[in-house]
Amino acid sequence: MAELLRIENLHVAFPTDDGLVRAVDGVSLSLNEGETVAIVGESGSGKTVTGLSVMGLHKKGSAQLSGSIHLEVGDSSLDIVTATDEEIRLVRGRAVAMIFQDPMSSLHPYYRIGNQLAEGYLVHNPGKKKEALKRAIEMLDLVGIAEPDQRAHEYPHQFSGGMRQRVMIAMALMNSPRVLIADEPTTALDVTVQAQILILLASLQKEFNMGILLITHDLGVVAQVADKVSVMYGGRIVEQGSADDVFYKPTAPYTLGLLKSVPRISTHGSDRLKAIPGQPPSLINLPIGCAFAPRCEYTSYAAGDICLTDRPELLGVRPTHLSRCHVAEATRDRLFVEELKEVR
Amino acid sequence: MRNFLIRRIFFAIITLLVVSAVVFSIFSILPFDPAALTCGQRCTDQIIEGNRIKLGFDKPLYMQYFLFLSGIFFGRSYGTGSAAFSCPAPSFGYSFNENACVTDLLREALPVTISLALGALTLWLIVGVSLGIIAARFKNKWPDRVSSIFVLLGISLPTFVTGLALLIWVTIKWKLVPLSLVGYTPLLENPFKFFQYFILPWITLAIAYAALYTRFTRAAVLETLGEDYIRTARAKGVKERTVLFKHTMRAVFAPIITLAGLDFSVLIGGAIITETIFNLPGLGRLTLRSVFEFDLPVVLATTIVAASVVIVMNLIVDMLYAVLDPRVRI
Q1: Rounded to whole angstroms, how far apart are CA atoms A217 and A231?
Q2: Which domain holds residue B73?
Q3: Residue A303, class by beta-carbon neighbours within 10 Å (0-12 exposed, 13-18 middle, 19+ buried)?
């Protein structure tokens, strides 16, 4: 399996009047062809910023990037962090494409669907207007839109939410990109439509042998489609591993908290939803120690005040399973097993 | 679309009837005798009463109003015998102060005002929208700051200051444009003279409006640039220039057209200050004169013309909006 995308030690910071917002703080991950890598985390954890960085969509001057983002482009690779605007523009939509959270506002209200799709092709294949329109209709057909040649003449407001997300997917696939970044692709949709979109994405992934970087806060979605998972908190990855590892043998307290807070149709109707207490940290003033420490119930199991004074490293529990926690691994294993029984 | 038009035209007629009736009643309430205003100081009661009958001021108010309305469609004649005269349809009455049919006065004034408004509109749209785009594109950089100085000056300087300043410096001191008191030349008769005649009034009006449009365009462009669909366009690999001039401007265009239509219609009602400063025989000056002289038929006519233009422009703007924005269907 060829590697399509490798993010190494990515830092993204936004200078504001209140101080430097460190939205992404040392993220590393890789994506192979045919693979789905999920980035999970709550709002403000830096997952969308990571996705936008790969597209080079941060405004010049308003974002400070360091580290590297190696994207496979044909036979070579391009580092998005150091590439010029024009180099990035040429890979956008061609080598890497992105679908966004809100299909309602992500399509231009004044242009016909067919033209909006065709534009993505025309940008990278100038002058081939006929081909572009033909391909637009093919793609609409591929994503399951009935009567695509007629619907291509319609405007976005004539489509339902699920149909618009299909259009967004069709648009992303116009140039058969190798990497697809899906930023909360199902969040704005009904549950029944969510499933359809996920199935569609999975089948298209097979057909195009794409690598998908799935950004979501929905653990249910992750469990269905992800091969590898990175859990983010406060701009950092706190746990990284295969989907099985992260779901069945979580080793970071935050991951455990996320799993516990998934609502269940429980047999005990009186059970309260187990939310993680407290608020996510401000990205301007991250705690000196572990970013999750103020909300963590396991800090007392670590040596002294280390959780509040030292930042934990992302260390391997196994070679492919990393997590960030000061509490001894054996202690965590013992404590988490009990908790996980409740979750299962 | 047809139903929309029928409905709107119906309401337009009602509105115009109400507007004319209100103006009509206001003047009847005022403590002036319109018949007495028709002749000078050495007037005898006999002449006044004669004029009263001649102009129909002896009839009850509703009858006067009815005669006024019927005059618009069928024309109107006054007096009898050798002293009789008539104003053909569409007649808005007879101005005793000017000794002319009101329609003829309008016919002379309207082209001047329309030329003034159209030229100014073109100028301020070009300047205002371009400056707005530049200011948005270089937000918080020097072009934005320079344009914000222009906006501040344009908005805070009244037209009688900019107009007089232009007149003093450009015409009198630097003699770049001749001080023309000869009067209005139609565009087709002598384009050069036409432009010479209007250039300073255009600039005067355009400065004030361009400032507003710069601010409006800048805000609209910045807001649109933050839209999700603009991010989508960038994600497709669209060039930044295309993002700005195609995707963004397409969305900004519709509200600018709306605003321009409404501002234009107000100007047709008469740019009183500008017309006065530059001695333009337009609708604004006609209105001003008729108000001061209590020339009721002219006031009534200019009010109705102004109201009609506003109503018609509103209709056109609404229809244009439906063309520009596919989400709006009428």
Answers
A1: 10
A2: 2-102
A3: exposed
Helix (H, G, I), strand (E, B) or coil at A65: strand
Chain A interface includes B35 (CB < 8 A): no
Count of Cβ atoms closer than 10 Å to residue B158 Cβ = 11
Q: Which of B228, B236, B327 sits opposite A119 (nearest CB)?
A: B236
A109/B235 Cβ within 8 A: no
Q: What is the pLDDT of residues A265-279, one digit of tens each?
A: 765 666 677 788 888
Final residue of a structural domain among A134, A159, A176: A176
The helix or strand, by DSSP H or E, that contains position A22, with its residue range, turns out to be strand A19-32
Q: Which of A176, A196, A214 is the last residue of a domain?
A: A176
Residues 114-143 of A with CB under 8 A from B: 119-120, 123-124
The string of pLDDT tens digits covering residues A172-202 is: 999 999 999 999 998 888 888 888 889 999 9
* A121 touches A131 (CB < 8 A): yes
Say which amino acid occupies B172.
Answer: I
Question: Mutate which of B137, B236, B256, B321 to disrupt the A interface (most A C-beta within 10 Å)?
Answer: B236
Percent of chain A having pLDDT more than 90?
61
Quick: pLDDT tens for A244-255.
999 989 999 999
pLDDT band at A36 (very low <50, low <70, confident <90, very high): very high
